[in-house]
Amino acid sequence: MTVTSAQGPQVPFTGIAPVDNAELRRRAARLSVELSRRRSVRDFSQRSVPQDVIDDCLRVALSAPSGANQQPWHFVSVTDPATKARIRVAAEEEERAFYERRAPTEWLEALAPLGTNAHKPFLEHAPCLIVIFAQLFGGIDGDKSKHYYVHESVGIATGMLISALHQVGLASLTHTPSPMRFLNEILGRPSNERPFLILVVGHPAGGATVPDIARKPFDTAVTHV
Question: Residue 122: pLDDT above 90?
Fold first, then answer.
């Protein structure tokens, strides 16, 4: 049933069934352990991933909150090998310029423990790339309605997507070559969209490894007031 209020049409909230504190604690502990296992993977198996699985995870992202409910995003799921190869070539060109000329010494020193470089084979090897675009304004013709809180909104949707992919059993990696405007050309996206990041998705390769790094201790990153 829809009712009208000063805020506009309203419908009953049915998104969460009430649970007691004991169940809340069980769910929170389980989720904390599960999502703490998520890591950024750079070695992917070429094993395919069903498109409907990717689509269901994208539906999670599309349910994210956004400024004024403007939903300023567009997601492009790329599985075509030729398109992935084009993206890799263009991304590696930008990455070589970054590592060889643009990156300050301090940045390269910060990246060194992660073992990253301009070589990005995962852009071809992973079965799926999800390219996320932020829509800076509405239509590209006629009325260009401004979007608000674009990066905050797209960031929230991206975080929900990463969480969903992990929970269904897929590895992911956020990749942000800079600049990324080549993605508009390769994927045929309009000028009102700006590439936000490439999310590399798939199954980890057999024997895949990740850097031996630690997270901040809880008490240094969280304050209770």
Answer: yes
